[in-house]
Amino acid sequence: MHRVQRIQKLDHPPLPSDYFDLICGTSTGGLIAILLGRLKLSVSEAIDRYRILAETVFSEKKARGKDGMFKASKLKQAIKDVVESKLGPGHADENMFELEGSEGACKAFVCAVAAQNITRRPRLFRSYSADKNEGYNCTIWEAGRATSAAPTFFKRIQIGPSGLQEDFIDAGIGCNNPVKQLIGEAELIFGEARDVACIVSIGTGKPKVTGFKKPAFFLQRLFPLDLVEVLKKMATDSEATAADMSQRYKHYPGVYYRLNVERGLENVSLEEWEKLGEVKTHTLEYLNQDDISQNIDNIVAALTALRVSHFVARENLLKEIEVTYHHSKDLVDPTVVVLFGMGGSGKTQLALEYCRRTEASRRFTSIFWVDASNPSTIAQSFLSIAEMISRKKWVLADADASMRFVTDAISAWQNPWLIVFDNFDKPSAFKNINMKDYFPRGKNGAILFTSRFAGAERLGHMITVTSMSESEGLELLLQRSGNNNNDDNCKVGKEIVRRLGCLALAIDQAGAYISARGLALHLYMDHYNNRKEKVLKETPEFWEYRRKLGDAEAETSLSVFTTWEMSFEEIGAGGDDRRNKEHLLTVSAFFDNKDIFEGLFRVYFESENPGWMEIFCIEGVWGKYEFRDVLAELFNLSLILSLETGTTGTHFSLHPLIQDWLKLRINLQDRRTYAAEAISILAAFIGDQDVAKLALQSKQLIVSHLDVSVQNDAKFLGGGGLGAQYLMSATASFASFYRLQGRYKEAEQLYGRALDGNEKQLGPDHPGTLRTVQNLANVYQNQ
Fold first, then answer.
1. pLDDT(109) > 70
2. Taking CA atoms, which of 38, 432, 479, 531 is between 20 and 30 Å from 237?
3. Do 546 and 558 touch, CB atoms closer than 8 A?
4. In whole angstroms, what is the distance from residue 349 CA to residue 352 CA?
């Protein structure tokens, strides 16, 4: 829990009951399950309470060993003291069942066995009401006594209504490792189809390998042969169960974890409370092993993965999802909603939050999560669902059989269900596949997609997950970075959020970057401007945004860079066509990102006819439809933020961070080349216009691109591009346009560069040089 605290930037280690849905145990493990799951103590509190309890109970042995070596009355009182210290005076006899209204809380149970038949399945004492085999709603102390009534230590306990009481003893006799009971209970509580983040089984130390000899005759009254046989089984039962579980989940990596100190605890007996320090030493040594530490990291990642630690609810989007399902008029098929947005916009976390809320409200009886990255991941998800639904009673021949089984089974259900198809981002992987074949039928169903692919709209009602609002982004940034919500931080934070285009993943990354370095909020933009690539690529050691890329087995931490690279790889065709599309996207990043228009490229094509523009022409003539087709493809992949076609041609925009990423993904020399080409493209367009006849809006648009071009010259060309001979005409064109718009300072600077270049290249008396002198004089006169 300390690792969870560090990852989620919490003030204190969190409670296990806030992260685990079900906790159980036997004997000492049963007492701990009560402390953590029923009383909801922290780990440190539970350790302290158990230490006090053990010292109280085991400090003094009974004078005679009849009915156990230690007084059961002391154990009873010690448990009651713990209960009362947590729940308050007068609650020592509180029952195991929790009060109504705690349905979403962590549940717990402990195991004991009926003394009359110790080889049968254990009896469960639960903190909740069960639909099957309900058992007794005894007091907490009675459950603790029952699960702790180890033979030779404590006498058995009677539980039940008067006249029908049963004797119970510690279930370690017949169920030393109750993990199978845990899974069985989870299926009853949450449903067989519920996805499982992880199962953690904690042992009491690997047993010492010993033999069991037949006891002497005079001992058989104390240790009958049937008990000896059970004790022999008990020595190996726990590890055999652990091995069974490992085998059961071997094809589901990251689900089942077994933690068990390998050596050092085998000689520590239950009553040796004074050796708890020794137990701690051996345990820490075990936990420091590299493979064990990695397993704990994996557990922590699973505990924190389902919902990002600083999730900011986007209520309008959550409401739109629910309203769409609620008002559906389809009486035959499930209602389909598609969450569409660019990589990093928060689609998956939004879907998870919707699932979390509907789970709490019991809106759906079953919720399934499907990895829709490609047909293989869908097949694996459906296989898992099939096994859960069938409880492994059916052996399914192949992926198609699993799909048919799942869709047929769910279609027959009368209760409402939800299937989430996450990361449907790669349409090329689903050629010749009808996605609707994966849908069960029935009006009781709901299907939710997350996708960066705009074409997913054909599947159902599309909800566009745009950038966060400024207030939502600010809330996320302050939470993730650990900064207070005050006036100074809000002012600086809003500037950061705006610069990051209000993109959820980028803001989360920024907050993690600030937090990891203890960085003052106002210093972040200096880091961003001076080491942008490092800032945009970096993810924390533990990062909630993860997924498998391609055929990789391991998950990769997702940054804004990796999400966009995945989209970039989906650009269609190959060879020159693909490179030409990439060229268009990359050179566009060297204009102002907000309104890039078709005329820029058409005029440049007609004047220069560069090779990379061949995909836009038909028989040597500019093809506006071909140009728009390419832009539509890039928009479908969420690489373009907006795309509009009107009477003035096609206009598109880029998210500011995608603009940064497109520049950063190429080397410095290529940045210089693209910056110079963007300057040439803009100059060709300006040179083709009758500026006096341009509308004011068109002039303002050109000026915005001009400003960016001048900035690019300073950044990528060292301020020497505009003024160099190969861009001389562009320099004069830009200066003239600035002058006509009353931007005299900028015009003066550019005419000055042009004059220096002309004097060096053409000489002071050349007509071109003299024209530049005259233009510069006109600027001075206008000023």
1. yes
2. 38
3. yes
4. 5
Q: Taking a C-beta distance cutoff of 8 angstroms, is the pair 172, 156 a contact?
A: no
* Residue 395 or 506, more confident: 506
Q: What percent of the chain is modeled with pLDDT above 90?
A: 27
Contacts of 176 (CB under 8 A, 6+ apart): 26, 27, 234, 237, 238, 241
Report the DSSP pairing between strands 256-259 and 199-202. parallel
pLDDT at residue 223, rounded to an integer: 43
CA dist., res. 379 & res. 382, Å (int)? 5
Residue 738: enclosing H or E segment and its boundaries?
helix 728-740
Q: Which amino acid is at 782?
A: N
Lay out the sheet containing 649-653: strands in order across: 596-597, 649-653, 642-646
d(CA 143, CA 95): 9
Taking a C-beta distance cutoff of 8 angstroms, is the pair 364, 446 a contact? yes
Question: Using one digit for the tens of pLDDT, what is the confidence trace for 739-757?
Answer: 888 888 888 888 888 777 7
pLDDT tens, position by position, 448-492: 999 988 888 899 999 998 888 898 889 888 888 888 888 999 999
d(CA 286, CA 290): 9
**How many helices (H) and strands (E) in the chain?**
28, 19
Average of pLDDT values for 536-562?
Answer: 59
Output the CA torsion sign for 380, 384, 387, 390. Answer: negative
Q: Which of 17, 27, 384, 451 is catalytic?
A: 27
Closest CA to 234 of 134, 125, 141, 152: 152
| Spatial distance between the Cα atoms of 307 and 346, rounded to a whole number of angstroms | 11
Q: Which two tokens stand for residue 274?
A: 């004074």
- Is residue 198 predicted with pLDDT exceeding 60? yes
27 is catalytic: yes
Residue 505 DSSP code: H
**Per-residue pLDDT at 590 exceeds 50:** yes
Sequence-distant (6+) residues with CB within 8 A of 597 are: 648, 649, 650, 651, 652, 701
Contact 32/20 with Cβ under 8 angstroms? no
Amino acid type, 291: D
Residue 156 tokens read as 């058995």
Average pLDDT over residues 638-656: 88
Q: Is 660 part of the annotated catalytic residue set? A: no
Q: Give backbone dihedrals phi and psi of 253, rounded to 5 degrees, phi first.
A: -60, 145
Distance of CA 757 to the CA centre of its chain: 55
Whole-structure pTM value: 0.55
Q: Are 107 and 21 in contact (CB under 8 A)?
A: yes
Closest to 547 (Cα-Cα) out of 422, 693, 721, 408: 422
| CA distance from start to end of the chain | 68
**What is the Cα–Cα distance from 5 to 43, expressed in whole angstroms?**
12
Q: How many other C-beta atoms can be found within 10 angstroms of the C-beta atom of residue 402?
A: 23
| pLDDT higher than threshold 70 for residue 548 | no
pLDDT of residue 227: 47
Quote the CA–CA distance of 443 and 308 in Å, as a whole number: 32
**CA-to-CA distance for 574 and 580, rounded, in angstroms?**
10
Distance CA 334, CA 332 (A): 7
Round to whole Å and give the CA distance between 668 and 209: 65
Q: What values do phi and psi take at 107, rounded to 5?
A: -110, 155
Task: Reduce the secondary structure of 234-283 to three states and give it as a string.
Answer: HHHHHHHHHHHHHHHCCCCCCCEEEECCCCCCCCCCCCCHHHHHHHHHHH
Catalytic residue among 17, 42, 170, 736: 170
pLDDT digits 0-9 by tens, 360-414: 677 888 889 998 988 988 998 888 888 777 765 555 667 788 888 899 989 988 8
